[in-house]
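# step 3/5: fold
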Amino acid sequence: MPGRHRHLRRSGVIAALAALAVVTVAGAGWAGYRQLSAEDCPAPVRLKVAAPNEIQPAVRDAADTWVRSGACVAVTVSVVDPTTMAAAVGRKHGVNLVNGGASRADTEADVWIADSSTWMLRIAAEAPGFTPSMLGSIAESPLVFAVPADRPVPAAAAPKALVQRIATDKELRPAVVDPERDATGLAGLLLIAGAAGADATGAKLKVGAMQAMSANRAGTRGALLERFQSRSGIGLAPLSEADLITYNRNNPAAPLTAVYPPASVMLDYPYAVMPGIDPPKAAAAATLRTALSTGLFTAALARAGVRGPDGTAGPGFETPKGAPATIPPATPVPVKAVSQLLGSWSAITQPGRMLAVFDVSGSMNAKVPTAGGLTRAQVTQGVARQGLGLLDDRWSVGNWTFSTDMDGRRPWVENVPISLCATHRDELEAAIGRIVPKPDGDTGLFDTALAAYQRVQQGWRPGVSNSVVIYTDGRNDNPGGLTIDELVAKMTSLRDPARPVRMIIIGMGTAIDRAELEEIARASGSGGVFIATDPAKIGEIFLEAIASRKGA
């Protein structure tokens, strides 16, 4: 299921080679790979490595040293922006990971060293064909809150207090790099979400903080750092420790101070061998990994302001004032947490046009034990209200409910046409109260799905996401209505790649027919099916669905 965590593969061959290489390095340098090669090296293995700017020199120098030791390999280590690389890898697997795309630079690589493993998680969550072999972290840089040195924000005794200030202090002017395009921005949201807490108060606080930061968001770290220099500049932003060190090294007019949060969130620089490369390259890549485990490499990282993979700093590291003696290990990030945060961010920052379609068949009266005995319809109402609260005034939203015979033989009714939130929010809020089950109603899903798709397509707007979001808990049951084959044929004939409409179907409970729902989503050309076997979880599923980039 998109959004569900799937471990990135560490293949047996690569793992064995990596283990062999570690032993070889410990015993006698890097001769292990040379033993796999002809002594006279008539045809060296050509290995391409993509690395972010801040560590590329250190990786390049380590690779050069390894090659000079006798390895029959020619290694090219190129600077590739992680956003650009992630966009390119995602495109290969049908995932439009970065809204607005990214420059199509040379992104062919055998090894990808991203700045954060969250890029890998995001791609793998939606692309079953993306199975890199992960050979661990080669460096770390903890996330900090960067603040101007002349008006520092003290580290709060309770992290929640800092989140409260971010959410409510208009004088602070907090900012963030777009988390869909930058790992430090995403890490900042993860840190804020953790500090805010998971209860209802924490959820509101998290949204408030994200809304405050989104008002001053930047597309790149460079653009964000420039804003610290302006007269009406920002007062706080999450950045990596390495970013702050590099920035201060250039003696800016407004130097920055680092506020270290109690919980660790890291840029962890994972070493990923790309899937599909040939065995000689895979072997070379595994052995090169060991060249990035030496004291010389750690020292080179330190000169760049980056820590080793255990969080310790090598010689020459310019430790920021107030840095803790040790950086505690970071807690692994669940991919669901990433998806849900990005879903919230998209709703807050990306205007869209959405028709929300709610099942009100009789089965929606079923109780949900994990939701305190609320019915499925009542749980859905709560999720609809939370979702509407996330959407800013630039969104346009409509509300339909469906069952059978809702308007004569028609299985659906329009409660509110697709309308701008800025002018119709009260009407949209009131329509949520109409998600009331029809006691003897069945499920006219297929006819409703087609009508909703046509309605969104008719008013299609460029520059925004045009989508249908259907909530349902059952299989189609509408005598005399469309069959699945008829629906798929009609929807396929209507599909226009130049005017895409995302069909997002959120199924709840265990009575749904996933195969049929996926046929509908495929026929639309874009979207996906998201299942909450526990209906109490549909709020989380909604956020994962909004964050999904598969086929978008």
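# step 4/5: annotate
The chain has 19 helices and 15 strands.
# step 5/5: archive (pending)
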